[in-house]
Amino acid sequence: MNLKLYSMKGVKVPLDFAEDYILENELVKLIPLNGKHLTPLAQISEDPEIWKFFFCDGSDAESLKKYIKKAVKNRSKSKEYPFVVFDKRTNQYAGTTRFYEYSQDLKTIKLGHTWYGKTFRGSGLNKQCKNLLFEFAFEKLQVERVGFGAYADNLVSIKALESVGCKKEGVLRNMFPSLNGIGRTDAILMSILREDWFAIIKPELSFKMTV
Fold this sequence. Notes:
30% strand; alpha+beta; 8-stranded mixed β-sheet
C-alpha cells in the first residue's frame, strides 16, 4: 500500500487523484489503471457477458483502448480513480474497478465499473478487492458512505454486492434503457455506511475471506 498515505493513522486524508495508490494484500493487488494494461486486459475482456450491463463495449482491443483512455482521462480531471486488478495467485491481470463521484465535503464516494475475466469470477477475488477498497475509503479517506448502483436486472452483481455487506436502499425508476432496446428499466441503489463497516461488515468480510 502507499506508505505515505498509510502512515497517517487516524488522520483524514482527501483522495488525491494525482497520487498513485497501490492497495494490496497476500492475494490481490490494485494498481492505478493506465494504457500499459491494454494488452493483458484484452486477453480476458472478449467475454460479452462482461459488457452486458455497461454503456460501453470493451470486448475488442480497439474499444478496450478507448475504455481505458477515457478512464485515465477522467482520473486526470479528478472525476474517477480507476484500478486494474492483479491476481497474485495466478500472476495474471483479472479486471478493473474504480472510485467515482468523490465528495470530500459530503464524505461520500461511489464504487463501481467493476468487471473480471470469466475465470476469476466466483473465485473469491471480488471479496479480496472490496475489502481493500472499503478499508481505503472508510479508514483512510474516512468517508461516511460508499455508494453503488446496478441495473435491476443484474441479479449477479446485486447478489455479489450483498455478499460483501451492501444494503439495498432504493430504486431509481426507469433510470436506464432496457437491454432489449424497448422501454426502460430501474436502477437499484445500494450502500455501505461507515458505522456498518466497523461494527459488522469488516469482521464478517474478514471471516468470509478465510473460509
